Amino acid sequence: MRPLRLSELFEAAPRLTGKPFRMPLRMTRRIAFFALVLASSGWAFSMMSEILGANGLTKVEAMILALFTITFSWIVISFWSAVTGFILKLLNIDPMSLRRKISLPKIRRRLATRTALVMPIYNEDPRRVLAGLEATYRSLMATGEGAAFDVFILSDTRKPEIAAAEEAGWQALVEKLNASGRIFYRRREKNTGRKAGNVADFCTRWGRHYEHMVVLDADSVMSGQAIVTLAHAMEDNPQAGIIQTVPMPVRQDTFFGRYVQFASRLYSPMLATGLAFWQMSECNYWGHNAIIRVAPFTAHCGLPLLRGRAPMGGEILSHDFVEAAFIRRAGWQVFLLADLEGSFEEVPGNVVDYAQRDKRWAQGNMQHLKLIGAKGFHGINRLHFLLGALAYASSLLWLVLLLLTTVDAIMRAVIPHEFFSGGYQLFPDWPVVESDKIFSLFSMTVVMLLFPKVAGVLLTLCDKAKRRGFGGGLRLVMSALLETLFSIFLAPVMMCLHAYFVTSTLMGYVVTWDAQNRDGRNLSVAGVAPSLIVPTLAGILWGIVTWIWTPSLFLWLLPVTIGMALAIPLTVLSSRADWGVFLRRFGLWLTPEETMPPAELRQLAAILAEPEAIMPARALAPQAAPEELLADMHPQRLDYPLDDLRRSSRGAASALLLRGKHWGRG
Predict the structure, then answer these.
(1) C-alpha to C-alpha distance for 451 and 548, rounded to whole angstroms
(2) C-alpha angle 251/182/200, rounded to 5°?
């Protein structure tokens, strides 16, 4: 069958009558937000300039000032996002419409569109993948809207034994759920383009059967109500191209895994609310647990190859930010539903596996720096690229900043102060120490770092139901204090690891694409030492040098040097599941998903507790995939002529208003 050309995608689309969702005060809220960011950053720059320049600004101090300004500005954006989210949450105001949220009876109308649940997998544990999918599918069927959905398991697995288990497990699942013709499995012969290529293959072969697709990760679990809500939201907002949820980490047992799970559950909804307030229709896509309008995604989100060789060139690794930018460039909107519950994921259970995942993300986000100047992107998407790169590059900048501060302090301690710099000077030049300014700047930095944590606790304490979900007010406060303490000592370890990842990327080292290890596993000293021996020795040496030459700086750097020196035992001990179980026994780091587990997670636990499924003796009939309705998905141009882009965007926004028929069917 001839692939459908891009121009034909929109001509075949039925039209919706829904009106675009309008967000009030678009420019006003962005001007106000960035005015606060610039004012705060400018104040900090001014204070640091006066502190460093009190006795004359040296070259080293000029470098310190530049690095401080960059890293502090990144903190400021997070701080004001948290402040905004806190205020909106406290006043119960929706971040998009700026209207007070009220409880209304649910209006039950049938979905008029069809949606595919697509799950790309790569060398994953088939038992866990299929168990999560089964829990999601059962929840979806329970909504009564199951007829509007199909499921696709999109395998890129390279190991034959895992692939065989995937296919056998899929057929057993189809029979178990009586889901013939509803759950499909496809394994690609070549995993071109990695995950993005896997999803693109679905779009070009079967995408025309569906108006939307919900992209799931191998560890994703979603409630049926959340999925149906996303589909309704796409029908009600015809200009929406992507709607992203906030996935919550669940099912963690190790000390580190429970730390990540607790912190994410406590702070993420508030932070996401703040982001949605100023990003509005230019929010980001995080690659999973989101719904996407298939036609514009197929037409506008084909990934190009970046100029140059890997790691900074070649295939785009972190595809999600780029796909959000492309679909926004074409005139479609990207939303973040900060309050939608029922979206879950799992995270690596120890520092090493968590950092291994970050290593791939660090390289992918650094690649985005080459996309900032591409034609046609919205300014907020360019900011996403910059902030995504800074999320990792800031660790390198902080490390260099602290090292330069140490060098400057030692130089001041070793080199005598010149009291008489003029030839005929009557009074000496006494050293000036701006104590008040130092204290003010330090205090403001601490406030900006700790406010999101304090705000998250206060919001939860004000809500009786949420407070109960975290184990009660006292346990919540104790858990937050423990989380903050652990964060202080873990931060230097992650700073060193991220700095290494960024440096290795800039030096040309290419990461490998492997399956994520999400299962908790105990780490040994021998297994951890090769990765963390350098930060450990550096922390010890750093502490000794500052203690000898500049004791006052030694005290300031103590949280950093202790965290680095304890990197190996901290990583090994936090990987232990018995430590996590100990905390749970005393009611610490509890989350609502543990104290009041939703049906989907209870279902998942029950499935995983079942004995291994035994394949029936008789051979199951092969489950035929839907008819292939081929469509092209061309790589996008980064030098897209702006006039052509505007015409394309206007045409897309007016043509792709979907309801009723499938956009690829007659």
Answers:
(1) 34
(2) 75
Q: Residue 547 belongs to what H/E stretch?
A: helix 525-549
| Cα distance between residue 273 and residue 82, in whole Å | 8
- The token pair at 428 is 């000496």
What is d(CA 177, CA 185) in angstroms, rounded to the nearest whole number? 15
DSSP calls for 43-54: HHHHHHHHHHGG
Instruction: Calculate ∠ Cα 56-57-62, nearest 5°.
Output: 175
Opening angle at CA 343, ends 382 and 357, nearest 5: 55
Residue 419 gets which letter from DSSP? S
Check if the beta carbon of residue 277 is closer than 8 Å to that of residue 335: no
Among residues 376, 254, 240, the alpha carbon closest in space to that of 296 is found at 240
Q: Lowest-pLDDT range, 295-304, 481-490, 513-522?
A: 513-522
Distance, CA of 341 to CA of 399 (rounded, Å): 38
- For 108-136, letters b (16+ CB in 10 Å) and e give eeebbbbbbbbbbbbbbbbebbbbbbbbb
Angle between helices 26-52 and 255-279 (to 10 degrees): 120
CA angle 574, 578, 584 (to 5 degrees): 95
* Partners of 214 in beta bridges: 117, 291
Whose tokens are 């008489």? That residue is: 420
Query: Which two structure tokens, joined as six digits, stand for 533?
Result: 């021996």
Distance (Å, whole) CA 541 – CA 587: 39
59 Cβ contact list (under 8 Å, min separation 6): none
Preceding amide of 311 cis, omega within 30: yes
Asked if residue 592 lies in contact with residue 470, where contact means CB atoms within 8 angstroms, the answer is yes
Which candidate, 500, 241, 534, 261, places its Cα nearest to that of 396? Answer: 500
For residue range 288-336, what is the model confidence (pLDDT) as tens digits?
A: 999 999 999 999 999 999 988 888 888 998 999 999 999 999 999 999 9
Chain centroid to Cα 450, Å, comes to 21
Phi/psi zone of residue 656: left (φ > 0), alpha (ψ -120 to 50 degrees), beta? beta
DSSP state, residue 13:
-
Q: Are 480 and 488 in contact (CB under 8 A)?
A: no
pLDDT tens per residue, range 92-142: 999 988 888 755 455 567 999 999 999 999 999 999 999 999 999 999 999
Q: CA–CA distance from 69 to each of 47, 49, 74, 292, 382 (Å)?
A: 11, 10, 9, 37, 20
Q: What is the DSSP letter of 370?
A: G
What does the alpha-carbon distance between residue 138 and residue 146 come to, in Å, rounded to a whole number?
9
Give SS3 for 118. strand
The contacts of residue 454 (CB under 8 Å, 6+ apart) are none
User: Alpha-carbon distance 353 to 346, whole Å?
Assistant: 12
- CA gap 173, 215 in Å, rounded: 20
Encoded tokens for 222: 């979603």
Bridge partners, 293 (sequence order)? 212
